[in-house]
Amino acid sequence: MVRKGIDRGLVSVVDADRDRLFSIYAESVRNLGTPVFARRYFRLLMELFSDSIDIVTVLDGEEAIASVLNFYFRDEVLPYYGGGGRWRASATATIFMYWEVMRRAAARGLRLFDFGRSKLGTGAYAFKKNWGFTPAPLHYRFRLARARNP
Q1: DSSP-derived secondary structure letter, 43
Q2: CA 43 to each of CA 17, 37, 65, 67: distance values in angstroms, whole numbers, following the listed order
Q3: β-pair partners for 55
């Protein structure tokens, strides 16, 4: 799929246009039935994490067809909010996009790519496992606080 994207002439750019990211993200998650975070949330993320964040956008000619907001911490990249727009090309564009995030991170000397969590048996889990990543369980712990006044 990465080669298909290259053969199709897809290119990636580090993008400062959070509105372009937002429109692609919003369409993508809405089509999956997930509520969309507010546009303001993305503006705040870009302001608060300005030194450790970027957007990688995939272009098909002049049209943005996939985009992802990435966080950088130590030697790790975490692609976090993103998606593919135009659905007829989104699979190739999304795979190409993640490849480009990995390629750019490696060029910066980063060693870890965190694809995030996914529930076992879901499409997101299968997509990530197909990249060759070894799944690692996340163990959550919590402590219930006792009420002072019942």
Answers
A1: H
A2: 10, 11, 21, 15
A3: 15, 69
CA-to-CA distance for 66 and 89, rounded, in angstroms?
9
Q: How large is the angle between the packed helices 18-31 and 39-48, nearest 10 degrees?
A: 130
pLDDT in tens, 62-75: 999 999 999 999 99
CA dihedral of 69, 81, 75, 102, whole degrees rounded to 10: -80
Look at residue 54 and tell me whether its pLDDT is greater than 90.
yes
Distance CA 30, CA 25 (A): 8
Chain position carrying tokens 């993305």: 42
What's the Cα-to-Cα distance from 76 to each of 19, 73, 87, rounded to whole Å?
25, 5, 29
